[in-house]
Amino acid sequence: MLVFVLGLAIFFAVHLVPVLAPAFRDGIVERMGKSRWMIIYSALSLAGFVIMVFGWGQFRPVAPQLYEPPSWGRDVTMSLVWLSFILFALPRRKPGRILSLVRHPMVTGVILWSIGHLLANGDQASVILFGSFLVFALLSRITKFSSDVDGPQFVSYRSDIVGIVAGTVLYAIFVLWIHLWLFGVSPI
């Protein structure tokens, strides 16, 4: 469990800097440049993610069951994760109707993804993992409310079509092959 928690701590510490301390991040970017900051940010995020997934894989088989997921939880999860993939795939350049309504598609996608996985998994490892992502995404969304004056303005439905098609294709690939390969669990 220690490896799992270490991975979570690294991953979320890096991601919380722009959310909770944007002035600190801006100071670092000013001193070292945006590209160096992004390299460090990405490397630490990736390291935290890899450690987290490895630790989760070690902890999950021995993690106690905290609750029994509802019988309909898996079906709802499939729908919520599909919507998440669509939100992740939305182009940002020429906002469509979805982006202009949602404003922060990645954060909203993480919220949907987390809730779905909490409905499908009741073991302690999964509750810690998906609960952490849910809390982070909600915190991120709340902090973005204060900076939201005007969100993206609708330009074209093309972005919506691209997001729906690309998100659906990526979702199908992930569900059919990658999820089992990465996490050892088939969602279907």
Percent range for β-strand residues: under 5%
**Which segments are poorly predicted (pLDDT under 50) over 5 or more consecutive residues?**
none
User: Structural class from helices and strands?
Assistant: mainly alpha
Number of domains: 2
Helix content: over 70%
Order of helices and strands: HHHHHHHH
| Overall spatial form | globular
Mean pLDDT: 91
Helices and strands in order, then pairings?
Layout (H helix, E strand, L loop, with lengths): L1 H19 L1 H11 L1 H26 L13 H17 L7 H6 L2 H16 L3 H24 L10 H26 L5
Task: Describe the protein.
- This protein is mostly helical.
- The chain folds into 2 domains: 1-62; 65-188.
- It is 77% helix and 0% strand.
- It contains 8 helices and no strands.
- The chain has helices spanning 2-20, 22-32, 34-59, 73-89, 97-102, 105-120, 124-147, 158-183.
- Helix 1 packs across helix 2, helix 2 packs across helix 3 and helix 4 packs across helix 8 (158-183).
Index terms:
188 residues, mainly alpha, globular, 2 domains
Short description:
By secondary structure, this protein is mainly alpha-helical. It has helices spanning 2-20, 22-32, 34-59, 73-89, 97-102, 105-120, 124-147, 158-183. Helices cover 77% and strands 0% of the residues.
